[in-house]
Amino acid sequence: MPFKESEHAFYNTCKITDPINSITPIRDSEHFMVSAFIDHRLNGVIRVISIINRNRLQPLYCVYCNAEQVCKTVHTEVQIHSDHFGFPFHVSDVICKGKHMQNATHVLISTKDSDNSATEYLPIKNHVRMNTFKYNFTVCISNLFGDYNNVLQFAQTMEMYKLLGVQHVVIYNTSSGPDLEKLLKHYETEGILQIVPWPIDQFLNPSSGWNIKLHKGDIHYYGQLVTHNECIYRHMYQSKYVLLNDIDEIIMPYKHASLQSLMEDLQSAHPRVSVFLFESHVFPTAQFEESGKFKRAEWNNVPWVNILEHIYREPYRKNIYNPTKMIVNPRNVQQTSVHISLQIYGYIHRVAFRVSRMVHVRDPMQGNLTKNQLFEDKRMWDFEQKLIPNVDQTLKLSGLLRPHL
Asked: Confidence band (pLDDT; 50, 70, 90) for 98?
């Protein structure tokens, strides 16, 4: 029990338990703990992904304990990420520095310099640094909310990613519709999907957008930046690459058959790059391809968008910010935002449009354009022979492929 060497060490007489929720309030404060990780890149400090009220920050302490429940209290360094968009609550890293952290199993953020009464400690993850990975590609999808029920697009997107070589998908779920719940359970049973409950609305008033002037609330977009950063650390030693995007977005290779061959070529050409940026291009749901070949009767009763019907891409807008999404090496990222990483080891590379781009099937951004002003882009059709039967099978197994009249 090496913590006994310090005069600040104490024995916790309470039973240390893991928290029930993925969000844990910090007592006597307006802050929250989310998850904790050993950061080997910073000499083995403990990094606690947290939600901090920027306007109510007070001194915080780190209580970390070993398997024998011998605990030690140290001061913390609170690093509030820079891209808070003006919202008072924001993702932050609470950094704990002390001796013998390699032996710690649990950690607690406290407002007291000695706290031996608390029981809900976060388990500390990433103790072992791995060089081989369970997954090559993990997709981190943040924040299903508002009883989201876009079943058909979700199934098509999941099956497309499987064809592209993704082995693991993580979703942070605040709320989803009844039909989508069935689909989520199917993918969870299949083993490709991990669902992280994200009850942010039980603790804060989350904004449904990024602009605080238009979308009021305590925290940006249901805590999207918290979940993105948490997902990177969660998969630091599980996945070679992590994709950060939304459920209606697909990072699509145009010169390669799969994400594996795409990233092999990109990484070979840019060995020091840790973050690859992919331009987002909108395929508006208001415009449909004219032949109707994918307007299948089997899908008539499946809710919402059929991405195969939307092959028209909006043109690039000059002098307008065109957002990107990312594929990152999680071991080289310290902090990330939505469209670019904030603190990394290595370099950032913007992938050429002709090589790969993001297909974003959604409401139009340039709603005044006619079909003739859009660009035809049928890349998704290259996968139809496998994609359609795979989607049908998934919907059938989920009980969602209903008889049609």
From this structure: confident
CA angle 170, 172, 174 (to 5 degrees): 150
Separation CA 174–CA 143 (nearest Å): 6
Instruction: Decide if pLDDT at 6 tops 50.
Output: no
Which residues lie closer than 8 Å to 175 by C-beta, 6 or more apart?
144, 145, 146, 147, 148, 201
- More confident: 393 or 115: 393
Q: Tell me which DSSP letter residue 351 carries.
A: P
> For residues 75 and 384, what is the distance between their CA atoms, to the nearest angstrom?
56
Q: Which residues of 61-89 are buried (b: 16+ CB within 10 A; e: fewer)?
A: bbbbbbeebbbbbbebebbebebbbebbb
126-184 tens-digit pLDDT: 999 988 999 999 999 988 988 999 999 999 999 999 999 999 999 999 999 999 999 99
Q: Which residue has the tokens 């209580």?
A: 63
Using an 8 Å Cβ cutoff, are 283 and 378 in contact? no
CA distances from 31 to 4, 59, 290 (A): 30, 12, 53
> Domains along the chain?
6-125 (2.60.40), 135-397 (3.90.550)
Give dist(CA 340, CA 131) in Å, integer: 25
**H or E element in which residue 185 lies:** helix 178-190
- Give the confidence band of 195 by pLDDT, cuts at 50, 70, 90: very high
